[in-house]
Amino acid sequence: MLQPVRSAANNRLLAALPRKDRQNLLARCEQVELRFADVLCNPGEHIRHVFFPTGSFISLITPIEGHAGLEVGLVGDEGMFGASLVLGVNTAPLHALVQGAGAAWRMEAAVFSRELKHSSALQRHLNRYLYVTLSQLAQTAACTRFHLLEARLARWLLMTRDRAHADEFYITHEFLAYILGVRRAGVSGAAHSLQGRKLIRYTRGNLTILDADGLQAAACACYAADKETYARILS
């Protein structure tokens, strides 16, 4: 565990708060190191902590009977995990899995709920974040239903790049198949196509984005739509 650092939020959601509200919130947080594949919460469990990633990112997965599940959201330093508490609901609707190791601010759920009652600015800002989250969930549902796997993979790689703040990261075919809700052979074919176009390099789980602009051109419009929604509502 890391020692708390009070000088900066390093999370875009927190950074957008008025200074006093941000400082009050951070004073009640501790900075922790999230490890790859850590499970932060399972569906139906009480939320014990909220997390504001600073150098990590969290995959939000909906369970599907008879299947491994499907990723419907990805939370990095632009957001938080535990947003349902804003609605007064302390039960997790989704499986929260650390996909990118790194630092995050952690706060006890009960303390967070008390802070919400005392900060109207925090309430207003997180209400807007909930709107963005709902919009992105709907976008992901439509994307999964209507867009080709290669375009969806390109979108997901760009989303991961944005949250990892790096062009290189580790991801296996098995995990990609799990996240995208397809068979491993489908992921292999899509990745091979992107690699053939010299947009990525992928060897033994080590993935490098070679051409971010080209990858965005290969992605479906959902990637740009998500970024536009976030910028319009929260910036």
**Helix- and strand-based class?**
alpha+beta
| Helix and strand element order | HHEEEEEEEHHHEHHEEHH
Which strand order do you get reading across the main beta sheet? 2-6-4-5
Q: What low-confidence regions span 5 or more consecutive residues with pLDDT below 50?
A: 1-8
DSSP helix count? 9
Strand content: 15-25%
Give me the count of strands: 10
Q: Compute the average pLDDT.
A: 92
**Whole-number radius of gyration?**
18 Å
**Helix content percent band:** 40-55%
Distance between the termini: 31 Å
| Approximate shape | globular
Main sheet, how many strands, which sense, barrel?
A: 4 strands, antiparallel
Provide a descriptive summary of the structure in words.
- It is a single chain.
- The protein is of the alpha+beta class.
- The chain has helices at residues 12-15, 19-26, 109-118, 120-146, 149-164, 173-180, 184-196, 212-218, 222-234, and strands at 30-34, 39-41, 49-53, 57-62, 70-75, 95-100, 102-108, 168-170, 200-203, 206-209.
- A four-stranded antiparallel sheet has the order 2-6-4-5. The protein has a three-stranded antiparallel sheet with strand order 1-7-3. A three-stranded antiparallel sheet has the order 8-10-9.
- α5 packs antiparallel against α8 (212-218) and α6 crosses α7 (184-196).
Secondary structure topology:
Blueprint: H1 12-15, H2 19-26, E1 30-34, E2 39-41, E3 49-53, E4 57-62, E5 70-75, E6 95-100, E7 102-108, H3 109-118, H4 120-146, H5 149-164, E8 168-170, H6 173-180, H7 184-196, E9 200-203, E10 206-209, H8 212-218, H9 222-234
Antiparallel strand pairs: 1-7, 2-6, 3-7, 4-5, 4-6, 8-10, 9-10
Helix pairs in contact: 4-9, 5-7, 5-8, 6-7
